Amino acid sequence: MGASTSVKSLYRYRAIKDTTARYMVSMGGVGVLVAILLIFFYLLYVVIPLFESAEVSELDNYVLPGEGKALYVGLEEQGEVAVNVTDKGQVVFFDTESTSVMSTFDLSPNAEVISVNSSGSNVALGLANGEVLVFKYIFDVTYPDDKRQITPRLEYPLGQDAIVLDEEGRMLTQLALQLSGDSAGLIAVTDDDRLIYSRYLREESFMDESVTTELESTTSMLLQKPIHSLLLTPLLDNAYAASKDGVLKQFRLDADGFDGPVIERKLEAEIATMKLLLGGFSLMVGMENGETQQWMPVRVNGEQQLTFIRKFNDNDFAVKNIAVEKARKGFSVSDSEGGITLYYTTSHNTLANIRTSESPIRLMAWSERAQHLLAVNEQGQAHIYEVHNEYPEVSWDVLWSKVWYEGYEEPEYLWQSSASTNEFEPKFSLVPLSFGTIKAAIYAMLFAIPIAVLGAIFTAQFMAPRMRQVVKPSIEIMEALPTVILGFLAGLWLAPYVEKHLIGVFVLLMILPPGFILSAWLWRYVPGRHRFDGWEAALLIPVILLLTWVAMSISAPVENAFFGGDIRIWMSQEWGIGYDQRNALVVGLIMGFAVIPTIFSMAEDALFTVPQHLINGSLALGASRWQTLLFVVLPAASPGIFSALMMGFGRAVGETMIVLMATGNTPVMDMSLFNGMRTLAANIAVEVPEAEVASTHYRVLFLAALVLFGFTFIFNTAAEIVRQRMRKRYSAL
Fold it and tell me: What's the start-to-end Cα distance of the chain, in Å?
């Protein structure tokens, strides 16, 4: 009775332990799934704002303060203060909320302002007497008593006196201004259709900050057609003019004036207006048919030609005006029906549409941060809008399609997230990063699969048990090697070594397989009493060392004899193939070495756990060991081997430190062995510390992490599904 009670107690204790273990394992599994889901949803939380639409709300509308017709408007950084320049020569600063006038400057009491043009906050007024007034409006911000206070004022970058641009004193109907360092350019059209270009040298006094202006050159030409829109590029190297009949003209300029013939482009419709995008490289042309086209200089046959890039057209209403953002590649277009449409060039996005029942919008101005838009209609009614549009640079096309960026000869896949100037056009294509990730993984697998799978076959089926007890744990311990150490060795030792002994490396890769086959053939003739069955792998070590020594020894003589002493120069000259020291070959070798333990361990387990009675039955029926391996063992273990390959591929895709230190991190799309790449994981590791939190760059990096998460999740899930099927299939054997 006592013994029976004791046994029951043991059974109850065992049941409690089994139940506890089962629940603990289940909780662990659920915890892993919850952690994965939390990571996934957090990535989504950071990424989703990239694809949110722009939001526009009207804050107020009122009659624009100031005497005369408004010719130009501008906004302070926060949209709190605006400036209005009228045809009476008045510069009026006013509060955008209360419309109260803060200050007024009368610049031209004696001559009517006919034309106006701006370069940033520098404004040029073309007068009826052929003179030009140039000023710069500035908003000084102070914090008296911790309260933000804005004080507007004017500066005169070309001096306070008017500049005589036309000696004949004719009316300046069109005008364009640009300041470039110590130089300034003014180009204008007179009412008798003459085009005048003057270039000035500026010098600022260190004593009293006064500015002296010296005329460097002035030239003119007679126009064949009236021009209604005129622009000057920031580098003072080109001027653009448009006529009503749809002809776009490009004038080449240098320090002496006009340089070369006039280049003309006939557009499909009449040109209404045009503006230079931020940086002055791209030209935005608004047309009467409702289209807004982007043009930019592209090098063709060694010469830059003005080339059509893309068009924006969301309605059939004629374009009235274009306003460009001051810090990004966005712009707004007003039409003849009183509507405003917001666009972004790089992403080719239509961001928002603003529809009013009033007359057409004649003037528009963006605040510095593009958070406020001031629009003025034909009746002088001003509308101020608040714009929430943080991430216009991103679209599906930008991420996954070719994009024609400024300065490039054709559309390309590019990743370049930062530059030295604000005029830079960010490039956020994930294609080269995804390509680099797959490229690195493929070359690693090409190196790892033969070694790992064949090694697993030999270890599981042919290796002596005592040797297997040493080999298998040793290879599995390699899994624990820190990848940063492998990356360090790859970047500082392996890459220079491969570069120096490139011929030797290829010779070694070519002679190793036939060397092994020759060794196996010779092993057949060794007397049986001298053989060590199952220890053949150990006997191959001297063969490997010998072949390695031979390959490296003949590397330099072969290179001198057949490749002029430098295989890299020879490949570049003969085949046009460049060589980067840190390239796909180095990554394939070192990352393949890192992946081998994963594939080997799982494949060997799959091969070793094939039921012994299947093997014995095959041998009993007369099959050889190799026939049994090919037709019994491998088919039975194939799901496990496939699972091992998928896990290895997933490991290679998600690898960070090795590719970070051994690839050169160049986001190029080339399958060449001798070129580097940039992977998703390495790019995230490099750029996340430098990215501004919540910026477009920051969120795109999280999007890259989401893509990488998707890659690894798919491969690992496929591997697990195959593994479960393998277990179910062979559980009853």
Answer: 41
**Cα 430 off chain centre by:** 7
- Here the tokens at position 331 are 């712009």
Q: Of the candidates 499, 488, 453, which has an alpha carbon nearest to the alpha carbon of residue 673?
A: 499
Distances, alpha carbon 624 to alpha carbons 51, 530, 604, 606, 617, in Å = 62, 23, 21, 21, 11
pLDDT tens, position by position, 592-642: 999 999 999 989 988 888 888 888 888 888 888 888 888 888 888 888 888
**DSSP per residue over 616-627, as a string?**
HHHHHTT--HHH
CB-based burial label for 566 (10 Å; 0-12, 13-18, 19+)? middle
Can you tell me the distance from the alpha carbon of 698 to that of 713, in angstroms, rounded to the nearest whole number? 22
Closest alpha carbon to 94 in 111, 121, 75, 115? 75
* Residues, the chain: 733
pLDDT at residue 357, as a whole number: 61
Q: Which two tokens stand for residue 174?
A: 């069109």
Task: State whether the Cα torsion 494-584-456-548 is positive or negative.
Answer: negative
Between CA 176 and CA 695 the distance in angstroms is 35
The answer for residues whose C-beta is within 8 angstroms of residue 154's C-beta and 6 or more apart is 91, 105, 135, 136, 137, 138
Q: Given a cut of 60, is residue 733 above it in pLDDT?
A: no
| Angstrom distance (rounded) from CA 222 to CA 577 | 53
**Architecture in CATH for domain 431-730:** Orthogonal Bundle (1.10)
Buried b (16+ CB within 10 A) or exposed e, 397-408: ebbeeebbbbee
d(CA 4, CA 437): 64
Q: Exposed, middle or buried: residue 559 (CB in 10 Å: 0-12, 13-18, 19+)?
A: buried
CB contact at 8 A, 284 and 277: yes
Residue 302 has pLDDT above 80, yes or no: no
H/E stretch holding 70 reads: strand 70-75
Contact 354, 337 (CB under 8 A): no
The token pair that represents 117 in the structure block:
């043009």
**Sheet containing 340-344, strands listed edge to edge, beginning at the edge strand earlier in sequence:** 319-324, 330-335, 340-344, 349-354
Cβ atoms of residues 90 and 382 within 8 Å = no
Residue 191 has pLDDT above 80, yes or no: yes
Alpha helices of 289-420 — where are they, by DSSP H? 396-400
Report the chain's mean pLDDT, rounded to a whole number: 87
Q: Is 389 left (phi over 0), alpha (psi -120 to 50) or beta?
A: beta
Query: What's the whole-number mean pLDDT along residues 547-565?
Result: 86
The single-letter code of the amino acid at 202 is R
Kind plus residue range of the DSSP H or E element containing 123: strand 122-127
* DSSP E strand boundaries for 277-327: 283-287, 292-300, 303-312, 319-324
How far is Cα 705 from Cα 82, in angstroms, rounded to an integer? 42
| Boundaries of every domain in the chain | 431-730
Q: What is the mean pLDDT of residues 89-113?
A: 88
Is beta strand 330-335 parallel, antiparallel or unpaired with respect to 319-324?
antiparallel
Q: Coil, strand or helix: which one is 7?
A: helix
Question: For helices 536-562 and 502-523, what crossing angle results, to 10°?
Answer: 140
Q: Which residues contact 297 (CB under 8 A, 6 or more apart)?
A: 238, 281, 304, 305, 306, 307
**Cα angle, residue 623 at apex, residues 617 and 628 outer, rounded to 5°:** 75
Q: CA–CA separation, 536 vs 544, rounded Å?
A: 13
User: Most distant CA pair in the chain: distance in Å?
Assistant: 129
Find all residues with CB under 8 Å of 453, minimum gap 6, and list them.
Answer: 599, 600, 603, 641, 644, 645
The pTM of the full predicted model, rounded to 2 decimals, is 0.86
How does pLDDT run across 648-681, given as a tens digit for each residue? Answer: 888 888 888 888 888 888 888 888 888 888 999 9
Banded pLDDT at 174 (limits 50, 70, 90): very high
- Grouping H, G, I as helix, E, B as strand and the rest as coil, residue 183 is strand
Alpha carbon distances (Å) from 36 to 41, 161, 473, 600, 655 = 9, 69, 30, 27, 18
